Amino acid sequence: STGSPTRQPLGVSGQKASPVPAVITKIDRMKTRQGESMFLKVDVGGETVRVFGRPEELAERLEASGYDIPASEIEAGMELHLPCLVKLGQGNSGYKIIEEFLPEAAA
Questions:
Q1: How far is residue 59's CA from residue 70's CA, in Å, rounded to a whole number?
Q2: What letter does residue 1 receive in the DSSP assignment?
């Protein structure tokens, strides 16, 4: 059969939250119980969401957003302005967490 599968619109039950526009604004670091932790600072609709990770993990998230910044170049204090899309979830304490990064063109 040649019928193309019907595409379900986002937001149907069983679907995760639909992606929302965001901007990755900075790579920074802060002291945590585990020592120094690096994070991406992401502006989501005027709210700042921090995404922690090792440089390799941050590089993967940047790549998922459509930006190719190698882990070796990721440094705390880098100012960025990288528009992308994110899927939000609820963290354990009810604050927003970013579950997935997508390129801006995915909209």
A1: 6
A2: -
With vertex at residue 100, the alpha carbon angle to CA 106 and CA 18, rounded to the nearest 5 degrees, is 55
What does the CA dihedral 58, 61, 67, 73 come to, rounded to 10 degrees? 10
Which residues on adjacent β-strands are paired with residue 88?
Answer: 98
* Residue 20 structure tokens: 């929302």
One pLDDT digit (tens) per residue for the chain, 107 residues: 555 555 444 444 445 578 999 999 999 999 989 899 999 999 999 999 999 999 999 999 999 999 999 999 999 999 999 999 999 998 788 788 999 999 998 66
